[in-house]
Amino acid sequence: MAASAAGCGFASQSVESAIEQLCARYHACDALLTDSGTSALILAIRSIVPAGGTVAYPGYSCIDITAAAVAARVRVRLYDLDPATLSPDLESLEQCLRRGVDAIVV
């Protein structure tokens, strides 16, 4: 089981212990600590979207998703949400898929 802190290369004993407990609880074999949710999004996007690739996410969302996409140097494709439920609008999402995306943030 590996535990690391992004950018540090080390973690204190208490942090390592906490990570090991979380890994055991969620049946994960590894965990990576980041300094923010935006940093975590950047790492997630970079790990699954090729350079210059495309990620789709709702047009009505947190600005941090846009910041992460820009930092990861990927193209952005926006899809609509159903105004009554705030769930993805399936027609809009289908159009994104037809135009080609490497990942979708829901």
**Shape summary:** elongated
How is the main sheet built? 3 strands, parallel
Structural class comes to alpha/beta
Number of helices, where a helix is a run of at least 4 consecutive DSSP H or I residues: 4
The neighbouring-strand order within the major sheet is: 4-3-5
Task: Write down the overall mean pLDDT.
Answer: 88
Describe this structure in words.
- By secondary structure, the chain is of the alpha/beta class.
- It has helices at residues 13-25, 37-48, 63-71, 90-99; strands spanning 2-5, 30-33, 54-58, 75-79, 103-104.
- It folds into two domains: 1-33, no CATH class; 36-106.
- A three-stranded parallel β-sheet has the order 4-3-5, with helices on both faces. A two-stranded parallel sheet has the order 1-2.
- Helix 2 (37-48) packs across helix 3 (63-71).
- The two termini are 29 Å apart.
Question: What is the topological layout?
Answer:
Layout: E1 2-5, H1 13-25, E2 30-33, H2 37-48, E3 54-58, H3 63-71, E4 75-79, H4 90-99, E5 103-104
Parallel strand pairs: 1-2, 3-4, 3-5
Helix pairs in contact: 2-3
Summed up:
By secondary structure, the protein is α/β, with parallel strands linked by helices. The protein has helices at residues 13-25, 37-48, 63-71, 90-99, and strands spanning 2-5, 30-33, 54-58, 75-79, 103-104. The chain folds into two domains: 1-33, no CATH class; 36-106.
